[in-house]
Amino acid sequence: MMNAPQDLPGRMMALQLREKAALYNSYMPFLEHGGLFVPTDDIFSLGDEVLLALELTDHPGKKFLRTKVAWINPARTSAHRPKGVGLAFGGDEICLQTKILIEGELGSALRSDRVTFTL
């Protein structure tokens, strides 16, 4: 019987982004290595480690990203932002590749002034 690696984060979340608009609303380009907002009612603290299982449209399979909580929307806000957490990507290869992939998908939309789930 195989044992699970001991260095994985204690919590795991899954996120499916099937539309470009959802990707735009969730992506956090202002973080050093990028990140994604995940709607959730679960309680987190800043700095909590989370393994994110990410599925992107047009990119088959799941990407497993080591992340840390860097943003918290505690409840629906007056700006109509959902409750959830922003997960900052780590500096490892899969996170860096995912940042490049997402930024390629969003292209010039990254410079938009449209409101997102975080800013």
From TrEMBL:
<dbReference type="Pfam" id="PF07238">
    <property type="entry name" value="PilZ"/>
</dbReference>
<dbReference type="GO" id="GO:0035438">
    <property type="term" value="F:cyclic-di-GMP binding"/>
</dbReference>
<dbReference type="InterPro" id="IPR009875">
    <property type="entry name" value="PilZ_domain"/>
</dbReference>
<protein>
    <submittedName>
        <fullName>Pilus assembly protein</fullName>
    </submittedName>
</protein>
<feature type="domain" description="PilZ">
    <location>
        <begin position="16"/>
        <end position="90"/>
    </location>
</feature>
